[in-house]
């Protein structure tokens, strides 16, 4: 049995990560900003203390490319090193409202990623050429395809404008 190779991630790049939570179509959605091909920072929300107690989290991660739960890394933007701190500060301000009026659905990790992408695009951190909803659908389809095949991939999003 061979050991799966780590995902090949580019430095200074923002990705949507889909992590397998088991079940037929369950994923944890995170944003991930690389500083090197093997080091970066995740941005996500969790509700560990209850269904309506969402908390924003950011963590430095050293080996996400080798984490077998990561089924998809969807490239959505290039972020220069001088903008890393500003991006981190901006993502901390994405609202944790229990309902997204913009996307008309309740808060979850996927909806938070959509709100974050909208804000980052709106404020010029990234330049999306497709809607956030289109990018969500792309990520969902690729994640499900990888899950059904037992594979993992790094893909440049159709919405990537750089």
Automatic annotation (TrEMBL):
It comes from the Eukaryota. This is Uncharacterized protein. It comes from Penicillium concentricum. The lineage of its organism: Eukaryota, Fungi, Dikarya, Ascomycota, Pezizomycotina.
């Amino acid at each position: 049995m061979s050991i799966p190779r780590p995902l090949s991630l580019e430095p200074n790049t923002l990705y949507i990560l889909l992590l397998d939570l088991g079940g037929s179509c369950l994923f944890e959605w995170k944003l991930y900003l690389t500083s090197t091909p093997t080091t970066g920072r995740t941005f996500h929300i969790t509700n560990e203390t209850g269904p309506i107690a969402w908390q924003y989290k950011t963590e430095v991660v050293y080996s996400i490319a080798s984490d077998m739960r990561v089924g998809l890394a969807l490239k959505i933007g290039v972020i220069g090193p001088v903008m890393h701190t500003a991006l981190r500060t901006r993502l901390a301000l994405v609202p944790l409202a229990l309902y997204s009026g913009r996307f008309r659905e309740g808060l979850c990790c996927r909806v938070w990623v959509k709100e974050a992408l909208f804000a980052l695009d709106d404020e010029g951190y990234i330049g999306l050429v497709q809607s956030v909803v289109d990018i969500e659908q792309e990520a969902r389809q690729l994640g499900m395809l990888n899950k059904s095949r037992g594979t993992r991939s790094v893909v440049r999003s159709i919405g990537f404008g750089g």
